[in-house]
Inverse folding.
């Protein structure tokens, strides 16, 4: 069954205004739940070294052992900040 809407004594301008009000209301609802995706941040080896407060050779060793995943562009090597943060593990306290 089709839904039929009949418009009596409505001008085209009034119809446009009603449509715009409805669209604006829906946009406001969408804005409340919208979370923009933040762009991925890429770090150089030295930035990772400074971030984790370790030597560059340690960053190299962790990369070779698979603890850190690297990305390259030409001869440059980059690391994703989100992956560096995810590779940090929680250390449970020792019970004496």
């Amino acid at each position: 069954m089709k839904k039929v809407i009949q418009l009596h004594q409505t001008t085209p301008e009034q119809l446009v205004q009603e449509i715009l009000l409805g669209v604006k209301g829906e946009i406001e609802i969408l804005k409340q739940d919208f979370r923009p995706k933040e762009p991925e941040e890429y770090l150089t080896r030295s930035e990772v070294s400074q971030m984790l407060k370790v030597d560059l050779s340690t960053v190299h060793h962790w990369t070779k052992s698979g603890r850190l995943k690297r990305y390259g562009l030409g001869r440059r090597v980059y690391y994703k900040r989100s992956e560096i943060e995810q590779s940090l593990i929680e250390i449970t306290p020792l019970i004496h």
Q: What stands out?
A: The radius of gyration is 28 Å. The chain has a mean pLDDT of 88. The domain at 42-87 is CATH 3.90.105 (Molybdopterin biosynthesis moea protein, domain 2).
